[in-house]
Amino acid sequence: MLTIKNLHAEVEGKQILKGINLEIGKGETHAIMGPNGSGKSSLASVLAGRDNYTVTEGEVWFNGKNLLDLSPEDRAREGVFLAFQYPVEIPGVSNLNFLKTALNEIRTYKGLPAIEGRDFLKLTKEKQQLVDFNANLMNRSLNEGFSGGEKKRNEIFQLAMLDPQLAILDETDSGLDIDALRIVSNGVNKLRDAEKSFVVITHYQRLLEYIVPDFVHVLYNGRIIKTGTKELALELEERGYDWLKEELHLKEA
Ligand SMILES: Nc1ncnc2c1ncn2[C@@H]1O[C@H](COP(=O)(O)OP(=O)(O)OP(=O)(O)O)[C@@H](O)[C@H]1O
Where is the ABC transporter domain (predicted)? Predict the structure, then answer.
């Protein structure tokens, strides 16, 4: 479903991604770990199409389409979803209106009619219960005044509502209390199925005890330097990243 080949990207003239290769199959969950500044969020941004990044080399294919040729909006309509590390507040736009507009954009793109008000409310209730999202937050302005954890939980609610094929979760666990971490992880697990793929960016192995990945990749200085299974995350938690640099004879970033 997603193939990344030799992806290089820069921001403000600085090379950040230096040859990423990654293959994500349908229904798979991949975790991306790596030291601060290694390029994890940059990879998420490039996949979502943030315009301050310039792709200088490489290819990204999503379900047979050249993702890099598509606008950020069309990537979202095609089924790529990014849960932000720092979700933005949009005062004056209610959470529900935002979701209805986004959902209808996707439906129109797929040639489907706009969702009926009644069906939308039914879907909202169903998904709100599925991911255990506080109903009171749904009518408020999008993320305005939400606590850090509420914003992260809202990202998962949006994910449930929009039902993308590929969800990229950028440090969704940061800022969550212990209960919220479990709730958010349960929400993600309920959304996992044979058709949907997840890329989970995290610093902590703890999250991967809840959302068990099929693969764990280590991103270092703009490249994936090691791939393993969930045991690799455990090893990183115990040993940090320095041993890997030594093992692979890598220079400092
Ligand atoms: N707009 C920008 N201008 C200049 N440098 C940038 C910009 N955005 C990102 N960078 C740099 O790109 C590098 C990679 O950043 P990125 O946020 O992708 O790392 P990360 O692996 O997600 O880090 P963290 O774990 O700290 O979130 C960093 O050195 C960062 O300073």
Answer: 2-246
pTM: 0.94
C-beta of 136 in contact with ligand 1 (< 6 A): no
Q: How far is the CA of 11 from the centre of ligand 1 (A)?
A: 9
Host domain of residue 100:
2-247
The ipTM value here is: 0.96
Tokens 């998420």 correspond to 44
Q: What is the CATH number of the domain that holds 94?
A: 3.40.50.300
Atom 24 (ligand 1): residue with closest C-alpha? 36
Q: Which residue has the tokens 């095609």?
A: 78
At 8, list the tokens. 């290089």
Give the mean pLDDT per block of 10 residues along the chain (253 residues).
Answer: 97 96 97 96 96 96 96 96 90 94 95 96 95 90 91 93 96 88 91 95 92 96 95 93 83 58
Residue carrying structure tokens 């997603």? 2
Smallest CA separation from ligand 1 atom 16, residue: 39
- Total domains in the chain come to 1
In a domain, 73, yes or no: yes
DSSP 204-226: -HHHHHHS--SEEEEEETTEEEE
Residue 7 within a domain: yes
Residue whose CA is closest, atom 10 of ligand 1? 11
DSSP one-letter code for 227: E
